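Box 3.1. Reading complex inputs
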Amino acid sequence: MNPIDHIAMAVFSIKETSVTLQRLFNWQFSDIEEIPEQGVKTSFAAFGDMQIELIEPMSNHSKLHAFLTKRGEGLHHIALKSKDIQGDLNNLDRLGVQLLQKTAQIGANGKRIAFLSPKETAGVLFELCEPLKGEKEGHE
Ligand code: ZN
């Protein structure tokens, strides 16, 4: 089983949204990190084992910018913890699942990540992410 690692919201402005969420719920967001490989900026609020991620496009050329223009702000993806992301991807591939990446890429906080095609899962985009070695959530 792959427990939830984080749920991500696509927003035009991390700053604006994080201020709102802090005011309403007292959520504390981390410093904004840029991930040029994904064309996004991210920030996380942590709740024990679970996090909320805000993602904002780095530019108008970002795929996320196209998503926001078409669908507006809202939920973007659900990320599941993986202890062995390449093993999980190989299993899904063997099951005939359409993957957006067949090998893991580097995401926020240096974690290894990969996305499934949302066509496979009722229109919801799922991410697999493997915590950095030595992180406590990676324990057996
Ligand atoms: Zn994510």
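In summary: Strands lie at 4-10, 33-35, 40-47, 50-57, 74-81, 105-106, 112-115, 125-130.
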